[in-house]
Amino acid sequence: MPENWEINADYVAVKALENGVTIIGLTRGKDTRFHHSEKLDKGEIMIAQFTEHTSAIKIRGKVELLTRYGVMRNDDLA
């Protein structure tokens, strides 16, 4: 493990509410770039962590998102 490993970095849990949900990890630094993507089907859950490489997560599709700040859903958006 690197010396500067962030063991207290935030985690989020993403539960797909439909098939084909896409989760995209975005990098930190001067230029924000895509560095990883995953596809989830209905009922699948992914746990992601913000790290020294990941500063943001973009989600396409209907999900339930659990964070330390609470639970969010985007399935009721018009």
UniProtKB/TrEMBL annotation:
The keyword Transcription applies. Keywords: RNA-binding, Transcription, Transcription regulation. The keyword Disulfide bond does not apply. One of its GO terms (biological process) is regulation of DNA-templated transcription. Residues 8-74 form the Tryptophan RNA-binding attenuator protein domain. InterPro entries: MtrB (IPR000824), Trp_RNA-bd_attenuator-like_dom (IPR016031), Trp_RNA-bd_attenuator_dom (IPR023558). It comes from the Bacteria. GO terms for molecular function: RNA binding. Belongs to the MtrB family. Oligomer of 11 identical subunits arranged in doughnut-like structure. This is Transcription attenuation protein MtrB.
